[in-house]
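Sequence design from tokenized structure. All designs in this work follow the same two-part layout: the structure record, then the generated sequence. An example of the structure record is given first.
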């Protein structure tokens, strides 16, 4: 009898562990693709850079975090680590994303690490092709996800 109870206890523990490791469906965030039709959903908020992935490798962030802000007239402003930047953004009806023209920027200097991060950020952002939002996170990425910038709006 002891053997049967021991087997039952092990089976129960394994089942509980497996069930505990699953993420409930209600906690899985779905991303909504940003298009020309729902662009207003991201307008007016300051989105702070949380992570930057380039060539499928996580880029280590240093110094003050860049942020980006979208305006209703398809203008973009932000802070790239040391300098402020501005430019435009365009969305197609199926979520196609483009960044027309180069970004304009102020020209202040900083440490080598901060200058490198800023240069990487302003060169990477225009390579992105789609944008989606999930909760307070904004994902800007290439279709193959080799590049992905994740931004957040602080929860108040």
């Amino acid at each position: 009898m002891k053997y049967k109870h021991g087997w039952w206890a092990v089976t129960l523990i394994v089942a509980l562990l497996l069930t505990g490791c699953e993420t409930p469906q209600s906690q899985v965030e779905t991303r909504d693709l940003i298009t020309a039709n729902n662009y207003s959903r991201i307008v007016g908020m300051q989105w702070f850079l949380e992570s930057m992935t380039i060539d499928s490798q996580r880029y280590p962030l240093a110094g003050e975090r860049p942020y980006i802000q979208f305006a209703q007239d398809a203008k973009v402003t932000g802070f790239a680590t040391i300098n402020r930047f501005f430019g435009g953004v365009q969305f197609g009806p199926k979520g196609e994303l483009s960044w027309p023209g180069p970004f304009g920027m102020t020209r202040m200097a900083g440490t080598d690490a901060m200058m490198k991060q800023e240069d990487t950020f302003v060169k990477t952002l225009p390579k992105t092709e789609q944008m989606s939002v999930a909760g307070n996170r904004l994902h800007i990425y290439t279709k193959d996800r080799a590049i992905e910038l994740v931004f957040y709006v602080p929860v108040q």
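The CA atoms of residues 16 and 132 lie 35 Å apart. We note this feature because it recurs in several other targets discussed in the main text.
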